[in-house]
Amino acid sequence: MDISKKEYEQTAKKHAGSSKMYITVPKAFLIGGLICCIGEGLLNMYQYFGIEFDEASAYTSITLVFLSALLTGLGLYERIAKHGGAGTLVPITGFANAVVSPALEFKTEGYVLGTGAKMFIIAGPVIVYGITAAFIYGIIYYIYGLCA
Amino acid sequence: MAEFIKDGSIRLTNGVSAYSYAAAVGKMEGEGPLGDCFDYVASGAEIGEDTWEKSESKFQQYALEMALNKSGLQKSDLSIIFAGDLLNQCTGSAYGLRDSGVPFIGLYGACSTMAESLMLASLFADMRLGERFAAITSSHFCSAERQFRFPINYGGVRPPTSQWTATAAGCCITAAAEKPPYIKAVTVGKITDMGIKDANNMGAAMAGAAYDSLSRHFENTCSSPDDYDGIFTGDLGQVGTDILCELFDKRGVDISRVHNDCGLMLYDREKQDVHAGGSGCGCSASVLCAHILPSIAGGKLHRVLFAATGALMSTTMSQQGESIPGISHVVEIADTL
To answer: In this model, does residue A1 exceed pLDDT 80?
Structure first.
């Protein structure tokens, strides 16, 4: 063929449009911020009903995870996420969506080899490296404490 | 007897007709610009099945049955079926056609499979190795997503270069020349890897293959884009189309006047959220069987090239950092023998 890979790469680069960041970033900020505001509202509500802060925080997380799972099941979460981008991906609701969506998707292959085995295909790496990072941080913190 | 020209191009000399053809598509495809052309438009993506893979198989069955019914044929009138799809082990074809009772050859050419199957069905017909041959391909948005990307309900964001896998199936039955459209020549695609690694930019991964196969077809058949009133690439989308036209343009060949892309024809990109356009075996298959072939039969088009393009991507190899090989097979179709 009479085209070098370099020429092709340049041509391909020229025609690959990028995301309109002046739209996507503010949208992610607003929708992500809204989710956090809902969280804050829930926290205040639970405290208003006399629940201690630590417990109210846990209830807030549980409520957000539940709502995210429900919206995922109803097929609404991905519609919000289409506009929310990282705003819906980063909060705890995004993590719930990442677990519930494969659980539902692979149900057709059974509850063991489908839902059970595939539930963490997206969230698995987050858990693995999250725990690993926590361990490393813990060790550093411990050593720092000994030195100090 | 089919005559080998050179470098993958073969001329069909005995005369072959695209005898009967039909396309079955999903709801979203039915809402696109070609919505009225399809033989069957489903009300949803499931069409009465409980899994996406079974649904895709059913779309293939529908396409085959409608192509047969339109010309009063039975499955027993077919000598061989050439079929393929995007799924592992050609699931859509193997499970969809397992009860057909017709000799079966499963093919994989990613999104180029319709041109691949039509090419083989035409060559077999030209060599009179049987009476009638069926070329069938399908794709399904949901079955492709879960195999190649993410679960349907996952809230990941698609980049602007990504394409939408069509939920569609097309079937074309070839036979000895009887009525237009006639299959005139084919050019077998070469695996062409231009170094594109982005699995969300299939148009760029395939445009090089389309350029190579179309260039060879022009040269080997001593023709130029001006000799055709339609050059239809299969699912390059907007990105791949722009690349292809620029590559030809730089070499002083203008194909943009007659070029169109099945991935751009199937959906209305202004109203339908398909980013760079449609893709999947069913995309070019349904556009071919519902629009291109009927247009030739109806005298609106006279001589066209159908160049379905495929990204022969393996998710495993992409994760290993390999670039994406592309392929494009060309089938020349005309209204005169």
So the answer is: no
> What is residue A3's predicted lDDT score, i.e. its pLDDT?
85
Average pLDDT, chain B: 96
CA distance B176 to chain A (A): 35
Quote the pTM value. 0.94
Residues of B with CB below 8 A from A88's CB? 155
- Show residues of chain B in contact with A125, CB under 8 Å: none
Q: What HEC string does chain B produce?
A: CCEEEECCEEEEEEEEEEEEEEEEECHHHHCCCCHHHCCEECCCCCCCCCCHHHHHHHHHHHHHHHHHHHCCCCHHHCCEEEEEECCHHHHHHHHHCCCCCCCEEEECCHHHHHHHHHHHHHHHHHCCCCCEEEEEEEECHHHHHHHHCCCCCCCCCCCCCCCEECCEEEEEEEEECCCCCEEEEEECCCCECCCCCCCCCHHHHHHHHHHHHHHHHHHHCCCCHHHCCEEEEECCHHHHHHHHHHHHHHCCCCCCCCEEEHHHHCCCCCCCCCCCCEECHHHHHHHHHHHHHHHHHCCCCCEEEEEEEEECCCHHHHHCCCCCCEEEEEEEEECCC
Domains of chain B, earliest start first: 16-176 (3.40.47.40), 182-334 (3.40.47.40)
pLDDT band at B48 (very low <50, low <70, confident <90, very high): confident
State the best of A6, A8, A92 to mutate against chain B, taking most chain B CBs within 10 Å. A8
B-chain residues near A126 (CB < 8 A): none
pLDDT, position A137: 97
What's the pLDDT at B45?
81
Tens of pLDDT, residues B123-167 = 999 999 999 999 999 999 999 999 999 999 998 888 999 999 999
